[in-house]
Amino acid sequence: MNRARYGHALTVGVDIGGTKVAAGVVTPSGRVLARVRTETPERSKSPAVVEDTIVSVVEELRSGYPVRAVGVGAAGFVDQHRANVLFAPHLSWREEPLREALSSRLGLPVVVENDANAAAWAEVSAGAAQGVDDVVVVNLGTGIGGAIVLNGRLYRGRYGLAGEFGHMTVVPGGHRCECGNRGCWEQYASGNALTREARELVAAESPVARALHQAVAGDARRITGPLVSELARKGDRACTELMREAGHWLGAGLSNLAAAFDPELFVIGGGVSEAGDLLLGPAREAFERGLTGRGYRPEARVVAAALGNEAGLVGAAALARDALPARRRRPTRRR
User: Fold this and answer.
1) Residues 190, 120, 273, CA angle at the centre, nearest 5°?
2) Are 149 and 289 members of one domain?
3) Which residues pair with 148 in a beta bridge?
4) What is the tens place of the pLDDT at every residue in 214-252?
5) Domain that holds residue 84
6) What's the CA gap between 197 and 208, in Å, rounded?
7) First to last CA, the chain
8) What's the pTM?
9) Residue 254: CA count within 13 A, CB half-sphere
């Protein structure tokens, strides 16, 4: 590979989650040239240890490529200046000045962004939402994250905290959520929701959950969202029903978001979305049923995300490139 031909176009994207740090050298088209993945240091470790990990993976990548900037997608609240991590539930960051710390150590421009925003920007710049200016991205994982793109720009809200869709109340007085409230959307349409419902079936020794029971040898604690998805794809009736129920709640939430933002497109990402039409089919049906003014308005399309697990780092890299002075980067979409 002729690395010199990429010139100043290359940036590094870093995706930080509760269990891993993934990073890659990314071209303007969204192609990942090199990757590094390592475990996130234990939650009890100091912020400096996580910072050291980020610096280490970036230095490893830049040793082989002419990197010009770094974008970091962090699972937590990031301020409107894209500099400080206000709160990261799975890490020990509290009011952490991450941009300044990393930039001073790396000697490169750094942008810090919420991980859901970064993943959304990846889909807009190089994935399923290319060419669409009004997009809502919903990421279904352990919980539900999201991001909003309006008029071709990421909408972060006044304080940088927009897109916390998972904590919209959809069932007043419903299941208790980790956030402290009841009836949050992510209690009905996330990986945790799938896991909870499946475990209840097995714990009750329901005859419809025979395949689930066998898969975990009767130990409901071993059930995971990916297991439910796998059995549903294989045709297990109980798991298919669980997936359909999650899809129903997903679609109900999307209809509320359509009333608020009126997007052209919904992009559904995250691990749970890998179930494909087993989830998205029921979601589209529920979305159409719950849409305000249905039959008298255009309906947003609902599609699966295109970039999978690499969306976070691809989007972070794109945002870092967009933040460079114009003479140092190629033109991209507005951010």
Assistant:
1) 30
2) yes
3) 136, 155
4) 999 999 999 998 999 999 999 999 999 999 999 999 999
5) 3-122+310-328
6) 13
7) 30
8) 0.86
9) 33
